[in-house]
């Protein structure tokens, strides 16, 4: 009785597993279609204005959480994104908006955020909000941030997501760019995404 | 003053709150209305309530936040959902409460619940129960699956509920209070065998996580940790929590079953071979 049952379970689990990993992804990033809700936020821009996804509607949105005092991860990521966008075919370069959301509103004043965002390109938008709103937004995308104890000079480290969330032109969550991708790979993914839904 | 905010759910789930409330209300109502000779003693009641409250606590308080953003807290959460909580609930032997409600069910409800009974009997086949118990741990800790489960709210809830329900099924099979001599409950030898068998793959998995050089579960890196902590430390602690406490739970389970088997040895005798057909 148990032997055929056991083999059945084994067969089913093997099928289930292969089924899960069967479709070899054509993306370099992680495909998150269906796993995450569409792009939605209401944040403060560097000019004090309210920024919503509609302001960048029709473009590919790259959502990234960080802070301007970030020693290495944020500058590296933003530099990689700039390079990747610059490697895109010319007609797509204006179709990508990078949304840099600072999770350190205490230190990241609008001026500071503006100059930081500008440094990484024209299509980089610096955004932030009060901590509760940031908590809601990060919760929506199943990420978080935390603060270390400040040192004697008042500097503190901030833990935050190291991935970039990619939304297509319609605002659907599509890809998660994990650290470790080359700019070439990011660029290919973005080009792929930009070409599939030009409307 | 204690921080009350910690008790508020991080990810409010009405279904979860409703389920736990129904379980506690159903248990309490049965206690008040059942005949005194069937009513469980206070130790058993406390054991049951502690088990339920523990499971609720890791799902609907701030603890859940840390479980989502720290690997080792997540392992602690599953230790409670899949092991400790159901262990206590099953150990408290809520069988009289089940009987109480079963007697009060109308025939329509009973026939509605019948398919559930079939599923239950299939899942409680010893081999299926053991494979499911370990299989679920491996499934949700399979790195690509784990990544998706932590990213998708729906998958996350599916994961936690599947762990809790499977934990309840498994530990109930282990601690079923009915004597295997008189009923079709699983024999003590088989129970001990299963408990030992499920411990080994869990120890292997835990040790593998502990001794992995690289990052096995980078989702916590990708999604940000609840507080800045070295990823290696987080993974090491999580691995230890996967490895040691579940193995200890198996040992404790085996000891409890051995004690019962020795206690019952020779005292419970089947009335006669032919009459013992109440299975």
Overall average residue pLDDT of chain B: 92
- Number of continuous helical runs of chain B: 12
- Secondary structure class of chain B reads mainly alpha
Largest sheet of chain A: 8 strands, mixed
Task: Please supply descriptive tags for the structure shown above.
heterodimer, A: Glutaredoxin, 8-stranded mixed beta sheet, two-stranded antiparallel ribbon, 10 strands, about 35% helix, B: about 280 residues, mainly alpha, 12 helices, about 75% helix, globular
Structural summary, described in words:
The complex is a heterodimer of chains A (199) and B (279). Chain A has five helices and ten strands; from the N terminus they run H-E-E-E-E-H-E-H-E-H-E-E-E-E-H. Chain A has helices at 2-21, 73-86, 110-119, 131-140, 183-196; strands at 30-31, 43-45, 50-51, 60-66, 96-102, 124-128, 146-147, 158-159, 164-167, 173-177. An eight-stranded mixed sheet of chain A has the order 1-10-9-4-5-6-2-3, sandwiched between helices. A two-stranded antiparallel sheet of chain A has the order 7-8. The radius of gyration of chain A is 20 Å and the shape is globular. Residues 19-23 of chain A have low confidence and may be disordered. Chain B is mostly helical and 279 residues long. Helix content of chain B is 73%, strand content 0%. Chain B has helices at residues 14-33, 42-59, 63-69, 71-91, 95-104, 107-123, 126-141, 143-151, 153-175, 188-211, 219-222, 231-264. Mean pLDDT of chain B is 92; it is low at 275-279. The interface between A and B is medium-sized, with 33 and 32 residues.
């Amino acid at each position: 009785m148990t032997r055929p049952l056991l083999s059945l379970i084994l067969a089913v689990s093997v099928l289930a597993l292969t089924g899960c990993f069967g479709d070899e992804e054509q993306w370099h990033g992680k495909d998150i279609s269906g796993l995450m809700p569409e792009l939605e936020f209401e944040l403060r821009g560097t000019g004090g204005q309210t920024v919503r996804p509609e302001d960048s509607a029709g473009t590919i949105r790259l959502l990234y959480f960080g802070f301007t005092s970030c020693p290495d991860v944020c500058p590296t990521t933003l530099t990689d994104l700039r390079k990747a966008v610059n490697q895109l075919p010319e007609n797509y370069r204006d179709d990508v908006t990078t949304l840099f959301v600072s999770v350190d509103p205490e230190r990241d004043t609008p001026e500071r955020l503006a100059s930081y965002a500008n440094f990484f390109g024209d299509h980089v938008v610096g955004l932030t909000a009060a901590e509760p709103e940031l908590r809601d937004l990060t919760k929506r995308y199943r990420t978080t941030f935390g603060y270390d104890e400040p040192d004697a000079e008042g500097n503190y480290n901030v833990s935050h997501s190291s991935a970039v969330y990619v939304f297509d032109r319609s605002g659907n969550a599509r890809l998660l760019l994990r650290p470790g991708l080359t700019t070439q790979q990011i660029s290919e993914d973005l080009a792929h995404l930009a070409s599939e839904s030009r409307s | 003053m204690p921080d009350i905010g910690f008790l508020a759910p991080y990810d409010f789930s009405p279904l979860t709150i409703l389920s736990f409330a129904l379980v506690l209300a159903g248990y309490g109502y049965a206690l008040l209305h059942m005949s005194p000779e069937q009513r469980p003693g206070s130790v058993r009641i406390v054991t049951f309530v502690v088990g339920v409250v523990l499971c609720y606590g890791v799902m609907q308080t701030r603890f859940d936040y840390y479980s989502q953003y720290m690997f080792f807290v997540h392992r602690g959460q599953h230790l409670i959902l899949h092991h400790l909580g159901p262990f206590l609930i099953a150990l408290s032997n809520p069988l009289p409460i089940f009987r109480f409600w079963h007697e009060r069910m109308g025939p329509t409800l009973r026939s509605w619940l019948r398919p559930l009974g079939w599923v239950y009997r299939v899942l409680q086949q010893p081999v299926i129960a053991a494979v499911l118990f370990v299989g679920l741990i491996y499934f949700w800790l399979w790195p690509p699956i784990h990544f998706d489960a932590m990213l998708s709210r729906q998958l996350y809830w599916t994961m936690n509920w599947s762990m809790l329900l499977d934990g309840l099924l498994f530990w109930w099979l282990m601690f079923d209070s009915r004597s295997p001599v008189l009923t079709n409950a699983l024999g003590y030898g088989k129970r001990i065998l299963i408990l030992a068998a499920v411990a080994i793959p869990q120890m292997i998995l835990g040790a593998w996580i502990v001794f992995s050089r690289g990052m096995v579960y980078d989702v916590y890196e990708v999604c940000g940790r609840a507080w800045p902590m070295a990823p290696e430390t987080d993974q090491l602690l999580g691995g230890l929590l996967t490895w040691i406490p579940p193995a200890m739970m198996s040992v404790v389970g085996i000891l409890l079953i051995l004690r019962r088997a020795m206690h019952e040895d020779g005292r419970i005798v089947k009335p006669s071979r032919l009459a013992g057909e109440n299975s």
